[in-house]
Structure formats: structure tokens, C-alpha cells
Amino acid sequence: MARTKEFDPDAALQSALELFWERGYEATSMADLVGHLGVARASLYATFGNKHELYLKALERYGEQSTVLEELSQPGPALPAVRALIRRFADESACDELRRGCFITNTAVELAPHDPAAGRRVERSWDGLETALTSALMRARAQGELPAGRDPAGLARMLLVLMQGMRVVGKAAPAGSARLRDAADQALSLLD
Prior knowledge:
By secondary structure, the chain is mostly helical. It has helices spanning 9-23, 30-37, 41-48, 51-64, 68-72, 79-94, 103-110, 116-142, 152-172, 178-189.
């Protein structure tokens, strides 16, 4: 007779995500995960695999929780949604008292240079964001919100890099840094 799981795998994955996001991959041991989740090591291994597999599953979960793609694909004017997203990234990065940053960006900095599986997930996330920005900017240009001479794909790539950079600066800069808002304002001026 098969044993039933003594914990909620969904809640455990969310809790693991929070711990990895707070501490990073290297600074989180399997013992930390066992203690934080309150789940036996054997149960974690049986459900999620090793620490690396659990981290990758947490990274996937983080990406699934993002609302950015939906925000950028709403009907109606597209440019206000792009502007709101950039401002939100700047504000969240400037006001991140815990200095957690973005889990995807943190993974890019910590793991992607030497972990191909993590690097692929980071690239997939960035590709999705860049595609959503490009689509929104193409709609904005077609609707007359963005000047006809502007390159939606180039602008989207620049905004993606800016947004990821804001997350890195937000982790290191004092809370409320004007640097992030000034950078967002300069980038948004390119959309005029």
C-alpha cells in the first residue's frame, strides 16, 4: 500500500521558493530547507529530487506567478502599460527593504554563468518578457502611441536590460534610491 504524502508539496515548493529567494542557492543548505519547510529530507528528495532540482522547480514557480505578460497584453492603449511596468520595476526595486531583488535576476547573477539548466530558465524568462514588450510596443506603434520611426524590438531589448539592471541596483542601493527612478524616466523618454 502506497504511503500518502505527509505534507502539501505545493506549499512546500512555495516555502522553498521564498527561502531560496531570500538567501540564494549557495547559501541555502538542504538542512536549511528541511528546517524551514518542516519536511523530512527523504520526503523532499522523493518529491522534488535534490536541492538543485528543487531550486529549478522554485524558479519555474516564480515565473508562473508573474503577471507581466498579462499586463502587457491587455486590450486598449499599449504604451501606458509599458510605462506603468517600467515605473513599477523602478519603484519596487527602490523600495525593496529586504533587498531580495528578482529571483530570476538573482539566478542570472549567481548561477547562470556556470549552471546551464538555470541559465536556460533565465533566458526563457527574459525571452518571454522581451517578446511581450516587443508585442506591446508594436501595438503602440500601430495605434499611433509610439512614433513610427521607433524600433519596437530594439526598445524592448533595451527595456529588458534596464529592468534587470534596476533589480540588481535595487539590491545594492539604499532603499528609496532616486537613481532607479531617474533611469526609468530617461528610458521612458525614449518612448515619446
